[in-house]
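Example 3.
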Amino acid sequence: MNVIEIKNLTKSYGKARGIIDVSFNVEEGEIFGFIGPNGAGKSTTIRTLLSLIYPTSGSATIFGKDCVEFGPEIKKEIGYLPSEVFYYDNMKVIDLLKYSASFYKKDCSKRIKELAEIMDLDLNKKIDDLSFGNKKKVGIVQGLLHEPKLIILDEPTSGLDPLMQQKFFDLLEQENKKGATILLSSHILGEVQRLCNRVAIIKEGKIIKVEKISTLQENNHKKFKIEVKSKIEDNYFNISGVSALEINDNIISFLFRGDINLIMKKISEIQIANLWIEEPDLEEIFMHYYEKED
Amino acid sequence: MNMFIHEMKAYRKSTIIWTCSLVGIIVLFLSIYPSFAKEADVFKELMEGFPEPVRKAFGLSVDSMSSMVGFYSYTFLYITLCGAIQAMNLGTSILSKEVREKTADFLLTKPVTRSQIITSKLLAALTSLVITNIVYLTVASFMASAVKVEDYSYKIFFMVSITLFFVQLIFLALGVIVSVLSRKIKSVLPISLGTVFGFFIAGMLASIIGDEAVRYITPFKYFDTNYIIKNSSYEARFIILEVVFIVVAITASYYVYCKKDIHAV
């Protein structure tokens, strides 16, 4: 079953680009990554899902219900952590969390205490006095206190120290095991790689790929680095399947995808001094997707 | 209900401050009334020395000033001015502060409709104004009976006083529609002060010109105290105008706010 279904979602801001024809599904129980550089449209997509902004065309459903029409009903089961958290400054943390909990018709006080303990958050401080990282923690507790079925996170880790990030990821994995579906937007590949099952890559408002993380990393891409003894012509390796070709004097590097025998034959025809073949990390694949579209 | 309580807490301080200021002004003004009444003739002479446009602009009516209600309605001009600023501040800030303080994301991702949000906020603002008016009216009535030198009609006193609330309602509605229509309001005070003083000055000009038509422009002239004192009633056309304006402004605010995109900061 799909928890989120996005169909041809378009949002334009006058002349400025928002998102164009975005479609993807998030299945129940998965951790879905949503990656792209700043300004690619990640937040726009998420804000549309939460009906903070309304789509120009296309539609999105959450739990099978239209996200605009049934917004308030759907939001009972959504926990949202915005990329920048700002709360009513003159409130105490506990008062804010209680206020937040009061929107959901269940008793959340026990969960608040648990989460605050895990995230090491002082409930009696004023929000005003908190550092950015600590405000982020308030955001995390606020987003999870009603045990939502769908957790939407917009660049959640900025401002958290590595230890807290670790705890936070553990927390997310626990929630996921309990059955929560997670949509995680990020431009940090490491965290997506660590947590997610599948990922959608967005660039300039368009989805350019929806893929399993494992598939992305599968052997269909190899990173080649070749040191040649004598200079070869620049176009020698410019065959189909080769990308990100770089030639620096005697060092040639590129990514290859396709029949490995083809490229090995090519290599065997020239005199080489050294050869490295590596699995590219996600970052390189990601950059590669970006560059290809130029 | 939780939003209403939250909003009430947020306005608590400002409600107290505004109420105290209004009460302070009226206590101050009315406490000089006994000495004023004693020397009424001297004042009359003094006032006749002012050029007529000046008298009109400040609402100084030579004949009515010496009576309790007449004196009160003169000072009341400044009470409504303050009250209008309070209401406009409230109206402008109730929705815009969520955007300014970047808390809109918090509130709007909760399982509530936007209409519910406006309703709670409007009710809280309205409650704040009602509290101000009740306290003000109580203190003003008490002061009036304490300083009176002759009997006065409490009905008229009450009718004049309650126009504070009517004027506030207009400015509350105006503030709300302004805040909904603008994308982001950086600071509420310049907008509310500018608008209120603009209308106030327009009201002064209207008095000088003496043109009926100009009265329609400024809410400060909807409730002419001289008319109320004379006829012990309000002018129906202005009541209708007020009701129409409020209904239109609030309905439009609901409509626009429910359709509005809430942008990231």
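The longest helix of chain B spans residues 114-147. The CA atoms of residues 121 and 228 of chain B lie 33 Å apart.
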